[in-house]
Amino acid sequence: MTTQTASEKRITLASLKKFIKENKDNLYAFRSNDFDGMTDCVQEVKQSSKKVKASKINLEDKNTLGIGAIWLVGSSRDWFKWFSDEIFEGIHISNCFGSSRIARLK
After folding, report:
1. Which of 6, 5, 26 is nearest to 80 (CA)?
2. How far is residue 71's CA from residue 29's CA, in Å, rounded to a whole number?
3. How much helix, strand and coil, in percent to the nearest 5, is found in the chain?
C-alpha cells in the first residue's frame, strides 16, 4: 500500500475548508487573475499576499468563505490544485472569475 502525498490527493471544496480551518492562524491569500467586465475576460492583476484575519473567516459564506481574495463559483466549477514554493504551501483555486491561492507558511 502506498501513501499519497498532499500533491497527489484530490482536492475538493471540503478539503479547502478543512485546510482553512486547520491553518486559520497562519493563512495567507493571493489573487493573481481577476474577471474584468469591461473587457469580458480574465486579466492578470498585480499579485500580492495578504495575511487573512482568523476573525474574518466564515466557512458558511459559499462564495468567499469570508476571505476577500478568493471567489468560488460552486457546483463543481472550481478547480483546486496543491502548490508549494520556497515560502508557502497551499491550494491554488481556478475558475471563470480568475485564480487565487490560499496558503500557509512552511
Report:
1. 6
2. 11
3. 10, 40, 45
Which segment of 4-8, 22-26, 73-77 scores lowest on mean pLDDT?
4-8
Nearest Cα residue to 52 out of 72, 71, 70:
70
Question: Nine-digit cell at 40?
Answer: 469580458
Q: How far is CA 67 from CA 2, 51, 60, 106, in A?
A: 35, 10, 11, 20
In the beta sheet, which residues pair with residue 105? Answer: 88
Locate cell 478543512: which residue? Answer: 18
pLDDT at 4: 47
Residue 20, H or E segment? helix 13-22
pLDDT tens digits, one per residue of 43-68 = 555 555 567 778 888 998 888 898 87
CA–CA distance, 63 with 50 (Å, rounded to integer) = 18
